[in-house]
Amino acid sequence: MTFPGKTITRLALAAAYGFAGFLHITSPAPFLSIMPPFVPLPELVVLLTGVAEMLGALALVQPISAELRRAGAVGLALYAVCVFPANINHFILDLGRENGGLGLVYHIPRMFAQPVIIWLTLWCASIIDWPLRHNKLRSRRK
After folding, report:
1. pLDDT at residue 49 greater than cutoff 60
2. How many whole angstroms from its chain centre is CA 51?
3. Angle formed at CA 105 by CA 99 and CA 109, multiple of 5 degrees
């Protein structure tokens, strides 16, 4: 039996990734503005990341194959790791603005949220269960 929280999390992540992918494709300017300068062909990269987010979201919600859901989750987790430099670049550029940009109140939680989103993506597709597995083992011993 699947814990309903996993299904809810999976659907929420799919909605968020799908919406973000849609924005990458239809409104690329904000994403281009935070692209690190070392990334080649930034317009193409933003377009492809949008496509990747949408395909990953579709994989998470499709009801036919658990393997495809897991593959989509791994792809989205890897994607989140790969875009972390853009988030760091955004942090640096934004805080360097004369008005301080969005400020630390925005950027610090965002930096901490990235690993949590990666974990949630892998957890909701049953790829990992850490640290919850440890609790299950402890309850079985009692």
Report:
1. yes
2. 14
3. 135
CA 33 from chain center: how many Å?
19
Per residue in 77-125, pLDDT (tens digit) is: 999 998 888 889 889 988 888 888 888 888 899 899 999 999 999 999 9
SS (H, E, C) 38-104: CCCCHHHHHHHHHHHHHHHHHHHHCCCCHHHHHHHHHHHHHHHHHCHHHHHHHHHHHHCCCCCCCCH
Sign of CA pseudo-dihedral 8, 124, 51, 109: positive
Q: Tell me the residue range of the domain where 116 lies.
A: 4-141
Give how many domains the chain has, as a whole number.
Answer: 1
Structural contact between residues 107 and 94, judged by C-beta atoms closer than 8 angstroms: yes
pTM: 0.82
pLDDT at position 3: 60
pLDDT value at position 99? 87
Q: How far is CA 38 from CA 8, 41, 45, 47, 135, in A?
A: 37, 10, 12, 17, 43
